[in-house]
Design a protein that fits this description.
heterodimer; A: mainly alpha; globular; B: 2 domains; 6-stranded mixed sheet; 27% strand
Chain lengths: 252, 324
């Protein structure tokens, strides 16, 4: 059971979360749903289809991945930083048999779980907009969870480096917002010249957006296994880094 | 109050062989932060059932030493053993048997009193009925049973401290580390905590205590270690150390410079050391000097009191402020 100790921190976080369920759900889901409404429903009616999808259909799976990204990354930045500094939760936990790795994994899996929950709620709401995901969407859920693990670990690295909450402005403005805009959620990357396109294809959110669209509509026209394997390796590496940075922050 | 006097059982192994009762053993421990030496080659041992007071001015190395024992600071050299487990090698095992009351409040503000204890218990893999029973015992013991469902924010400073103590005992520790356990509390709250700590001592819980309240240390500790500049400058039973290094009585006399000069000379007839601080004369007597009290009848004000740990502390570490 030694390797599942991080689970107790996950349970601690969920215990706290249950006390503020509504506020956090609205915070995480509000933005992607509003985008779907404004861009997909508002703007999309005037637009041509893309690869046979209406703009609303094109947009919806990508926005689901963005809700995973935002939920997971916000949890392990603002949430974890509060636990690290103001609430001294990690300090208290380090007095127990739990170690740095348990804290990092507990926080990352918790952030990823919140990301997955956002995605599930978003997906369940798509029929309201007239978008019907395929049965393959169930197989997409582990992929979205993995993406949540990546962004939660990324956020935790930022937390380990942060000197104040303001530091997260860099992360949001220089990482999350560009990923949100340029990972193929809003426009097809094919329209970019091949020399420049490779850069956008390598952004960590892009394969997830592509996978999400493929699974959502059951059209497997791109190398899906390669994208999953690549994202998996990147996720493992980021988790490993987050443990190292968190150790540096907590142990003198 | 009688119902709250029943202490929760702590894990004490009474069958241990003599010589096998070392709880903490530290040898040649050092810590450098860059080129600054925070802990300089210190060695000490804590035996089963002892309460050892860790004293020293700010920056003396107390917290660094404790943090090394807890794995929050990496040692630069030396060895540490807690209950015969190598530290930091067997930290995770050792922490099952340690309870810590940290200096800063690290309770979960979003959770209730009971949820705080149950959550902390889960980190020790104590769950379900066992955790609830243990938590109920501890809340009773620390007079918090009626605050069980309260959110932490609504607790007073004293209640929070008691809850931190209860939390530290959730895993029935053999070693309790207390870092300033009563800082910022009113006298009533302090005495309640002292009372409970004494009961735990009687049960045989080993304690390592740091505090800036020297009366607290004098009250609770069987033995003190005084640190300064990363070194142990004295260690022993408080009363013996005071008698050996300070004396029996302390005279504190106020007066003009001329008066004090004269008095300082007169007190040399008796076995005593003197110290001048501003317009005060301190006389630390190594024998009964009450016969010299008649000299003082013209002084502006004076008093004679038994020497205490504070005198020892000042004597060893000086009067200058230590600000980090």
């Amino acid at each position: 059971m030694k390797h599942l100790r991080f689970w107790t921190l996950w349970l601690r976080n969920s215990r706290v979360w249950r006390k503020h369920v509504m506020a956090t759900l609205i915070g995480n889901l509000g933005q992607p749903l509003l985008f779907l409404l404004a861009m997909g429903y508002g703007l999309g009616r005037e637009m041509q289809t893309i690869d046979g999808l209406t703009y609303l259909q094109f947009l919806a799976p990508g926005l689901v991945t963005s809700s995973v990204m935002y939920s997971a990354a916000f949890e392990t930045t603002y949430g974890s930083y509060t636990r690290l500094t103001m609430q001294k939760t990690y300090e208290a936990i380090l007095m127990t048999p739990l170690g740095i790795t348990d804290i990092a994994l507990g926080e990352i899996f918790w952030g990823a779980s919140k990301g997955l929950l956002s995605a599930i709620i978003m997906l369940a709401m798509l029929p309201l907009f007239g978008v019907w995901p395929s049965i393959w969407t169930i197989a997409l859920l582990p992929v979205l969870f993995m993406s949540g693990v990546f962004f939660a670990a990324f956020g935790l690295i930022m937390t380990a480096l942060a000197g104040s909450y303001e530091f997260f402005n860099y992360f949001i403005s220089l990482v999350l917002t560009p990923l949100f805009l340029f990972s193929g959620i809003f426009f097809p990357l094919k329209t970019i010249a091949p020399s420049g396109r490779i850069f956008f294809e390598l952004l960590p959110l892009t394969p997830i957006v592509t996978l999400s669209r493929m699974f959502c509509y059951g059209q497997f026209h791109e190398p899906w296994l390669l994208k999953i394997a690549g994202s998996f390796l990147l996720t493992l590496f980021t988790c490993w880094l987050s443990v190292i940075f968190l150790r540096k922050r907590l142990i003198q | 109050m009688s119902s709250t006097q029943t202490p929760p059982q702590t894990a004490v192994d009474a069958t241990q062989a003599p010589g096998d009762d070392i709880i903490v053993q530290v040898n040649g421990l050092s810590k450098f932060f860059g080129s600054r030496c925070a802990v300089d080659n210190i060695s000490f041992a804590i035996r089963q059932g002892e309460c050892v007071g860790f004293l020293g001015p700010n920056g003396a190395g107390k917290t660094t030493t404790i943090n090394m024992l807890l794995g929050l600071v990496e040692k630069s050299g030396g060895t540490m053993c807690i209950m015969h487990m190598d530290i930091p090698g067997q930290h995770q095992e050792a922490k099952r048997l340690i309870g810590v009351v940290p200096q800063t409040d690290s309770l979960d503000p979003d959770l209730t009193v009971e949820e705080n204890l149950l959550t902390y218990a889960s980190y020790f893999n104590i769950t379900g009925k066992k955790a609830r029973a243990r938590s109920a015992d501890l809340l009773q013991f620390f007079a918090l049973a009626n605050r069980r469902k309260e959110i932490i924010e609504h607790l007073s400073g004293g209640q929070r401290r008691r809850l931190l103590l209860a939390r530290a005992l959730i895993n029935e520790p053999k070693l309790l580390i207390l870092d300033e356990p009563t800082v910022g509390l009113d006298p009533q709250a302090r005495h309640l905590i002292w009372e409970r700590l004494e009961i735990l001592q009687q049960q045989g819980t080993t304690m390592l205590l740091t505090s800036h309240y020297l009366d607290e240390v004098e009250h609770l500790s069987n033995r003190v270690l005084i640190l300064d500049h990363g070194k142990i400058v004295a260690q022993g039973v408080p009363q013996q150390l005071i008698t050996e290094l300070v004396g029996i009585d302390v005279f504190v006399i106020e007066g003009t410079v001329a008066e004090l000069n004269a008095l300082e000379k007169s007190f040399k007839q008796c076995q005593a050391t003197t110290e001048r601080v501003n317009d005060k004369l301190y006389v630390y007597t190594q024998e009964d000097c009450s016969r010299l009290e008649s000299l003082l009848k013209n002084s502006r004000s004076w008093l004679r009191r038994p020497a205490n740990l504070e005198d020892l502390f000042i004597q060893l570490t000086g009067r200058s402020l230590r600000e980090s």
